[in-house]
Amino acid sequence: MRHIAIVGSGPAGFYAAEAALKALGPDARVDILDRLPTPYGLVRAGVAPDHQSIKEVVRRYEAVALDPRVRFVGLVDVGVDVTVDELLSCFDDVILATGAPRDRRLGIPGEDLPGVVGSAAFVGWYNGHPDFRDLAPPLDHPTVVVIGNGNVAIDCARILARTPDELASSDIAQHALEALRKAQVRTIRLVGRRGPHQVSFTLKELGELGELDRATPWVEAADFPPPEADLALEPGQRRVVEVLRRFAATGPDGRRPIVVRFDFFRRPARILGRERVEAIEVVPTRLDETGRAVDAGPAEVIPCGLVISAIGYRTAPIPGVAFDEREGRFANEDGRIGPRLWCVGWARRGPSGTIGTNRTDAFAVVERLATTPSAGRPGRVAFDRLLVARGIATSDFADWRRIDALEVARARPGAPREKVVDLGELRRVALGAPVA
Ligand code: NAP
Predict the structure, then answer these.
(1) In terms of pTM, does the model score above 0.85?
(2) Measuring from each residue's beta carbon to the nearest atom of ligand 1, which residues come in under 6 Å?
(3) Which is the closest atom of ligand 1 to the Cα of 54?
(4) Distance, CA 311 to ligand 1 centroid (Å)?
(5) How far is CA 279 from CA 27, 183, 194, 276, in A?
(6) Which residue intervals of the chain bear CATH 3.50.50.60?
(7) Rounded to an integer, what distance in angstroms lies between the CA atom of residue 112 and that of residue 233?
(8) Which of the chain's ends, N or C, has fewer CB atoms near its CB within 10 Å?
(9) Pocket of ligand 1, candidates 47, 149, 294: which has the most ligand atoms within 8 Å of its Cβ, to mutate?
């Protein structure tokens, strides 16, 4: 037998489990641990609610979870309830698939003012993650500033821009839908420190901003280099820039009340406000010969009531596990952190790529793991003994299915589910308490 513990039940964790079943065959025994009783990580709490088709991938993860060699163990917080060393004493291998749940900080004055939120928090809020249900982002000002030119910035802008009716048939959390119904937002400004050629948007995600019921994109034509400069871009990026040029050519149509405005070549410098954010100061930039943004003019002030920074994520460190502070992920060499300790997905390489990237990544790491000898550890028998000794009540996949059924039953008409957003309630349902 080869006993493997995977910490984290998002895409990277499930792909690592799938890879272990494939590489080790009948000998594999895989425990997938999660802090929550709900599996699927970012597919549940990160993928935008209006992108339901992307969530179909959980069918594949479900098949893995139902394999008799696999066990889902919810409500275990590794680093708090049990240490990684304890896991290593029970299991032959430990694979950290904990993702990158923390927001990178802007590192500018004023970023701790109320009304400045990271995209992990904002996305977690509208997706009903229990950690962020009480975020209450202020939506009472006509302008929201979103910092960053990646797909997460687009997700945040699009959710703010959609009509509540467009969102009602999604699995957006009810508290977010109600808040968005009352929102006063009219302008969403996407602040990018570099220009149209440097964006990290993908084609589909950017294109969607041009197809919204009540919002139109607005790009300044002056922000583009001459059209022939686009020829130097690789084809995928060239198509993205073509969409931006189209947005610049059409401009706001005046019929739709919300404008999503791209503020290229603007570096966030300072967030201003007394009790809460009242404005953001941005400094115009230009690119130097290495492609970096350098200051190019006097600061401008953009009055706003909410700043969402969507500038990337960091992995949460776990005591005793080597961490690369600069990169914000576990220190590893091609997925190996140390003897019998591995990492996959965003916890390994940082927050980049699509869900599918994590499959390639996890398969490569597990292939390596499979070439190492088994340490002859006892596996889940020893782990269960540890949990019992510590009084830790865990949940399993059948418990998740009970939560799932409850969420589906509670859904608004036309919506796939209404997520349980309270951790206490999640625990109660998972651990079998009767539900009102
Ligand atoms: P990202 O693609 O890396 O974009 C981060 C953005 O933040 C970049 O525009 C970056 O600008 C900017 N930035 C970084 N530090 C900054 C600072 N100090 N000040 C101002 N701007 C700063 O990251 P992401 O949007 O968080 O997305 C993470 C991954 O998830 C990506 O691979 C993304 O494609 C994926 N994702 C995919 C989907 C989808 O497929 N539907 C949805 C969401 C996310 P520079 O380029 O100048 O550094």
Answers:
(1) yes
(2) 106, 147-153, 155, 192-194, 198, 200, 202, 205, 268, 310-312, 351-354
(3) 41
(4) 5
(5) 59, 18, 21, 9
(6) 102-312
(7) 38
(8) C
(9) 149
Assigned architecture for domain 2-101+315-394: 3-Layer(aba) Sandwich (3.40)
| CA–CA distances in Å: residue 142 to residues 192, 302, 367 | 20, 12, 52
Q: Output the CA angle 418-420-426, nearest 5 degrees.
A: 155
For the chain, how many residues are written?
436
Instruction: Report CA(328)–ligand 1 centroid distance (Å).
Output: 14
Query: How far is the centre of ligand 1, averaged over its atoms, from the C-alpha of 122 (Å)?
Result: 15
Give the integer Cα–Cα distance in Å for 28 and 236: 40
Q: How far is the CA of 351 from the centre of ligand 1 (A)?
A: 8
Name the closest-CA residue to atom 14, ligand 1. Answer: 311
Residue range(s) of every CATH 3.40.50.720 domain in the chain: 2-101+315-394
In CATH terms, the fold of domain 102-312 is: FAD/NAD(P)-binding domain (3.50.50)
As a dihedral over the C-alpha atoms of residue 152, residue 155, residue 157, residue 159, rounded to 10 degrees, the angle is: -150
**Is the distance from CB of 242 to CB of 229 less than 8 angstroms?**
no
- The single-letter code of the amino acid at 40 is Y
Best CA proximity match to 217, nearest among 264, 175, 182 = 264
2: which strand partners?
28
Ligand 1: centre distance to CA 141 (Å) = 25
**Residue 57 C-alpha to ligand 1 middle, in angstroms?**
23
CA atoms 62, 400, 329, 386: torsion sign:
negative
| Full pLDDT tens readout for the chain, 436 residues | 999 999 999 999 999 999 999 999 999 999 999 999 999 999 999 999 999 999 999 999 999 999 999 999 999 999 999 999 999 999 999 999 999 999 999 999 999 999 999 999 999 999 999 999 999 999 999 999 999 999 999 999 999 999 999 999 999 999 999 999 999 999 999 999 999 999 999 999 999 999 999 999 999 999 999 999 999 999 999 999 999 999 999 988 789 999 999 999 999 999 999 999 999 999 999 999 999 999 999 999 999 999 999 999 999 999 999 999 999 999 999 999 999 999 999 999 999 999 999 999 999 999 999 999 999 999 999 999 999 999 999 999 999 999 999 999 999 999 999 999 999 999 999 998 655 5
Ligand 1: nearest atom to the Cα of 352: 32
Atom of ligand 1 nearest to the CA of 313: 26
